[in-house]
Predict the 3D structure of the following.
Amino acid sequence: LRSCSPGRARLTNASRHAYLVARFGDIYAQERLDAETLLRTYISDMEMVRRIIYIAAVESFHAAKMAYRHFKMRVRKTLSLGHSGPESLEDTVLDYIVRHEDLYDVQASVNEVIRSMNINPKISFPPEIDFIVISSLIRELCCVAFSMQTLIPPLDIAFGTDGELFHETKYRRSFDSDFTAPLVAYHVWPALIENDVVIVKGEAVTKR
């Protein structure tokens, strides 16, 4: 194994946190809109396009978190054989992962996301097209989600369901929402949370 510098993960936590939160915002502002434009060439229903992108985000975080758990277990098993300190084994494992995030098999996660989307009953796609057309968005989300697991504490996205009560602290309404409606009709983008507290609002559509 390549050597690790002591405490790297903790020393860089604040700067990595700031970068990843900003990157999540950039994906919302740029890659999400690029994917939306691309999907509109195949699908005329704007609600379906938004649902596809939202589910891609949710599935990307799920796949990346699972990949991180497996990656961390493999690293811990390997490093535990020769670990002697002065850092705790957990800190040594985290330092190694932060230094070698390039070893994350992001393509495997992208494939897993697309498989999950293909069997999701809430979204559909013309049979001649595949969700692989938005794989660049999925890849970016997986990379960010994986890196967010290395933070102390890790970042995640908030769980959202159709029909949930709209919360101003959790979402902002899309421009085409009914601004008097109390319930979320569907989600456009997930909220980002840290220790169950929203740090970046998501976006949702409210309708009566």
Summary: The chain has six helices and six strands. The first strand starts at residue 155 and ends at 157. The radius of gyration is 19 Å. The CA atoms of residues 101 and 147 lie 8 Å apart.
